[in-house]
Amino acid sequence: MDLDALRYGNFSQLGEAITDWEEMTRNLATLKEDAQTNLKSRADKANWAGVNAQVSREFIGKTAEEFADAHTQADSITKILKDTRGELIGYRDELNETLERAPYKYCTVIDTGGGTFTVSGNPRPDWASDPSGSTSAVSQEDVEALRNEIQRILGKATESDSTAAKALRLLVDQAKYGFSGAHYENRDKAAKAVADADLMAKILAKNPHDVTSTELASLNSTLAKYKNDPLFAEEFATQVGPKKVLTFWAGIADPYQGTYDPDRAKQAKQLQKNLGIIVGQATLSDSDKMQNWERQMIRLGPDQLGIDDASNPTGYAVMSNLMRFGDYDDQFLNDYGDKLLAYDKKMNGQGINAWVNNFNDGDLNYWGYKNDRGRDPMTGFLEALGHNPDASAQFFAQPDGSGATVNKNSEVNEHLQYLTKERVWVSDATMQGNHDYVAARNSLGRALEAATTGYSADASPKDVAAGDRRTAATAGVMEQVAFLYGGEDGPKMLHDQPELADSLGKMAGAYIDDIDYELSGIGDHSKDALDFPARYAGRAQFGNQGAIDFLSVLGQDENSHKAVTAAQHVYTLSMLDAHPPTSDSHMNQARDIMSVGAEARGILDNSRVEQAATTYGENSEEANKALGRSGDWKKLLVGAVVAGGVASIPLPGSTAAAVVIAPVAADTITNAANTLLGHEIDKATDDAESDPLVPSQMTSREFYGRGVDDLGSTYDAYFKDHPNARAVADQQQWVEETKSSYLGTGSHENDYRGRPPYKD
After folding, report:
1. Residue 404 pLDDT grade (very low, low, confident, very high; cuts 50, 70, 90)
2. DSSP 576
3. Secondary structure (DSSP) of 414-450
4. 502 contacts 560 by C-beta, under 8 angstroms
5. Cα 698 to Cα 631: distance, rounded to the nearest angstrom
6. Does the pLDDT at position 45 exceed 60?
């Protein structure tokens, strides 16, 4: 900043601009509130149909979000401008006060341009008569002191002005179209974020072997502090550059670097997470700098980095391990994934995985390391999709986006086709790990969970309270999954890919209402949308036989059987809660709900019995043990939470965040204490705290008997306080109808029961 610009600065125009921005912010706050309470809320409640149901509602939702972002951005700009103006006025006043203060007022200060200036002492009026010969009114020490003081003030003013300008540019460039949701309370916080990013970038500029544990600790704490700060993230990423991000992490991750200091290994583990989150945050920026950064990162993918660390890995190998954590830009993930899969197809031969072999000791993953060394880049990439639902839905979208029932392989996304049916998968476990477990396949399941449910695979019950996030796009992915795993090869695919079983169960559970709708008709005719209404636009279409086949395959596996059975039970109970036996119309709907729920349960249970008998031998001890384990599915209801039109059902043996997201009736009471569903959850909790729900072994006869008993308990609970309605139902033979729907008729391998059990 030039001296005279500050010395004679008139900031009235900036003040007028701030006044305009303050008014703009107030107006946008009103528009934001109006868009949320009127525009969006009315759109959410409207009974849309056709194209409007799929397009208009989503567009209105995004428009409302843009008003919110516009207000946020205007508020940040206003506060940064206001703080900067106040600081510059303060520095101007301080400068002029200093120049007027003795002895400095006896000096001449001249602006020489380009931020430079001169200071000299004024001549003394009596210099000619002074015997000492001194001509200046001040000493040279005073001149130097004034020069230093001016430089200090000018430096502070320059820093205030330049950091504000940089923060504003970064803020505005975050969104190429629309507005950024980044928010800063004042200029100092925005400037501090940028300055700290530059400071941390200097650590990454070093040779990773020379970085101390203290520096790693500082890097970790700072990255964690700014994990949600967009300005910090972009400044950090662009200052470091894509290749240095990769070479630095490879150098830190190399296990030989952590051998000598256990604390360093702990710091490295945290750095993998923190660095991945920050890089992900940076990719959310639309600035030209970050767009170029992303293109460079993708270009680095297939090439080795030319380093001695981690077996000289490729860019894919390193970046995929960083992206296990964080929220990444959807387009970046899709562009990266397209290139990675194309490269992977070239590298993987029949029975050979190019990434996992004895020549590759490039361990780049510290999380779940025993079963996942991080050598296969597909694992980390699929984990990234599992945390980014929109990107995952886009990556696995139906080829033509038609949303019609998938009937042939050409209607399956090529990425999904390759990953589920063609790719060579190899365990990446250590010597101490489980070599029958393939971490990458588990990550594929998690990616598909995100793509089909609209939630991160790590979503917690608190997250799920936001409600149903299914869309026509997520349903399009689900239709493909059901076609693949419900198809003729489905039993073998599930058997060969056991890591996907729990994910497939969670996916089916999330769409149990659409599955029940498909079961409600006679074949593909007379399906009942009144009894099983669509909960979102563009509901999934499986076809009647497709739904039966998909359920029959999932019933074969213990884990998927439990997840879908629990979701079906919860959905049925919620629908009965929504249709108490207080009217003929409710009674008619409840009858269909019970019948279809019993049919779905019968398909699952029959499939489980048949698979246990095929795998272990009919009525063998091992088969009975398997059925005993499957019979305790009600334990899943312990800790189930109903909110926002969905239920989150924790999976046993998993972290608290692993949940089945099951739809419930739209008007099910959030606090379900006095409903069938609430009583069932309470009963499951009480039973879990006392005796086990089931014995350790069950014959198929006992297993089916328990299934019939569950249906009977639901029947009794529904009519508990309505004896007259029960009498009508008994007269109409609801009991026989429900029992028949569960037990079915004919061969276990006919069209009614779906796919036969898997045989080796």
Report:
1. low
2. H
3. HHHHIIIII-----B--TTS-TT--HHHHHHHHHHHH
4. yes
5. 8
6. no
CB 550 within 8 A of CB 508: yes
571 vs 677 pLDDT, higher one: 571
- Hey, what are 402's tokens? 């038609």
The span from the CA of 664 to the CA of 677, in Å, is 10
Question: What's the pLDDT tens digit per position in 90-117?
Answer: 888 888 888 888 888 888 889 888 888 9
Q: Which residues contact 102 (CB under 8 A, 6 or more apart)?
A: none
Q: Which residue matches tokens 């003929």? A: 584
User: Is the pLDDT reported for residue 258 higher than 80?
Assistant: no
pLDDT, position 50: 47
Q: Which of 77-91, 465-479, 670-684 has the lowest mean pLDDT?
A: 670-684
- Which residue shows structure tokens 């967009």? 230
List of long-range contacts for 612-618, beta carbons under 8 Å, 24+ apart: 612/700, 613/700, 613/757, 614/757, 614/758, 614/759, 615/757, 615/758, 618/700
Q: What is the mean pLDDT of the chain?
A: 86
pTM for this entry: 0.83
Q: Which residues contact 495 (CB under 8 A, 6 or more apart)?
A: 556, 758
Percentages of the chain per state (helix, strand, coil), in multiples of 5: 65, 5, 30
Residue 121: count other Cβ atoms within 10 Å of its Cβ.
20
Closest CA to 251 of 302, 325, 311: 311
Give the Cα separation of 755 and 312 in Å (integer): 47
DSSP assignment of 557-570: SHHHHHHHHHHHHH
Q: Spell 618-627 as b/e; 16+ CB within 10 A means b.
A: eeeeebbbbb
Amino acid occupying residue 516: D
pLDDT at residue 325, rounded to an integer: 96
